[in-house]
Sequence to fold (227 residues):
Amino acid sequence: QVQLQQSGPGLVKPSQTLSLTCTVSGGSISNDNFYWNWIRQSPGKGLEWLAYIYYSGKTDYNPSLRSRLSISMATSKNQFSLNLTSVTAADTAVYYCARAVYGYHYFDRWGQGTLVSVSS
Amino acid sequence: DIQMTQSPSSLSVSVGDRVTITCQATQDINTYLNWYQQKPGKAPKLLIYGASNLQTGVPSRFSGSGSGTQFSFTISSLQPEDIATYYCQHFDDFPFTFGQGTKLEIK
Fold:
């Protein structure tokens, strides 16, 4: 059973960089049947897809945040990570990592969620 | 971006009720629509993919239908464990977007 475990700080200061990591167990992040995503949820904006990365290194980002987002993967550690730069209070949200099935585009495995608060 | 509008935003329900939620897209998305259930403090759970396909292990009282811009999600006989918030999500093109959610509450 594939599981996704998130790690990273729950508090980030304004203007700094939010960094989260998702460790995948029970399956390989290099499996070409899947791609790996970050999604966030805030009271104001609901569920918002942020970015994905595929085993080949292909990435895509939500255009509304593209200039501040970066997603990467470490295949040797079976992990993928998200960086969001220049954060403000508007970036306060629960951040989820999630697996999507390639070609069908549904999110079938999710991490536990990390509440990230942006505050000084 | 394609916008997804769900209705209603909340619904008071009783055990045994037939519950229907609708989701409208701002453009034709074929059947590129998924439905999720989310309980407080938990990640969303996939219920329906491709508008009408039941995810493995999901009870058959859940169903979905529709194509183009109009979709519906139905619980045929509501069970207590179905009290949650439900979201639609399109996958016609990136960025994928979600509806704002429909929260079920016990009457």
Summary: The first strand of chain B starts at residue 4 and ends at 7. The interface with chain A takes residues 1, 32, 34, 36, 42-46, 49-50, 55, 87, 89, 91, 94-101 of chain B (CB under 8 Å). The two ends of chain B are 36 Å apart (CA to CA).
